[in-house]
Amino acid sequence: EGEGCFYARNRAKSNKLGIVYTSPNIAIFLEMTDKDVIEKAARLFNRGVNHKLRGVNKTTYRTSIFGDKAISWMMTVYSLMGQRRQEKIRDCIEMWKTMVGRGHYARLRA
Fold first, then answer.
1. Tens digit of pLDDT for each residue in 84-109?
2. How far is it, in rounded angstroms, from Cα 74 to Cα 86?
């Protein structure tokens, strides 16, 4: 009923001592023009709803969830997804498994 994405990326960051860390970002993003559907998803995620004006008189609504909670939802909806989305979920889970601590600022295992 809209656009969504299962997202997993690494970003390199360095601290004050010059030590470089990889900051993994794992998320689910949902965006569409149907406010009621996004509000329902946001309630399931226990998250808020953002909105953005796109073009003339067209508002889209967005919600997202990150980290371990996103992984949990990916595992929950996995069997309902098509082959391409299942592959993306598997990629996200594999990256998540390599994370030390699996928290927001976790580092990747070597």
1. 999 999 999 998 888 755 554 455 55
2. 9
pTM attached to this predicted model: 0.76
Chain segment 46-61, per-residue pLDDT in tens: 999 999 888 778 899 9
Q: Number of C-alpha atoms within 13 angstroms, CB side, residue 67?
A: 10
Interstrand relation of 107-108 and 99-100 (parallel, antiparallel or unpaired):
antiparallel
Residues 6+ apart with CB under 8 A from 82: none
Tally of CA atoms within 13 A in the half-sphere of 91 that contains its CB: 14
**CA neighbor of 6 nearest in space, from 81, 101, 99:** 81
Check if the beta carbon of residue 28 is closer than 8 Å to that of residue 44: no
Q: Kindly report, residue by residue over 58-87, the tens digit of the pLDDT.
A: 899 999 999 899 999 999 999 999 999 999
- The alpha carbon torsion through 14, 16, 18, 24 (nearest 10 deg) reads -20
